[in-house]
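User: Show me a protein chain along with its predicted structure.
Assistant: Here is one chain, sequence first, then structure tokens.
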Amino acid sequence: MAEDPAPDRSRQVLMSDRADADAYGDLPVGQLVAEHHQEELRQRYYGLLQELRVLLPGVQVLTAFLLALPFAIGFGQLDDLGREFYGVALWASIMATISFVTPTVFHRIGGRHLRAERLIWGIRTTRAGLVFLALALVSAATVVTRFVFEPPVSFLFVASMMVAMAGFWVLIPVRASRRHDRRPPPGR
């Protein structure tokens, strides 16, 4: 019985597609030219929008809770420092929401021929949104933990959050990126 050659052909197509993706995937966004890399820019931008579809609902829920908090009965028991942390948390969550919505606005309002610029600014505003989100989470957690726990427990709680965010959101991605950058290109 003869083997079906289709699996080999599909493997060749996949390997070819992977090589093309690697060829463009390693280029910084600023080096992608809209006329030549239109599909790559489109895929990266839609990928960014997909990521934001995951982030945005969580930030919106956080903002909604923070907006409703002053109407809660226990809010009046916060001290001045607690209210200041609350103000920072509210401001930062609104700024995170604005930052995460910005790439979608670029997509709808920005010129279609400015794909690389939209992607660059979309990445920048998303990174800014992550900084604002981190600030909102730390500030909101500080308000709650100061209200519920003794100062040492509150400090450890918030400090562990900050370490986790720094590790998972910054150190691990940067380290992985550096490791990837040191690898030789495929086929060499």
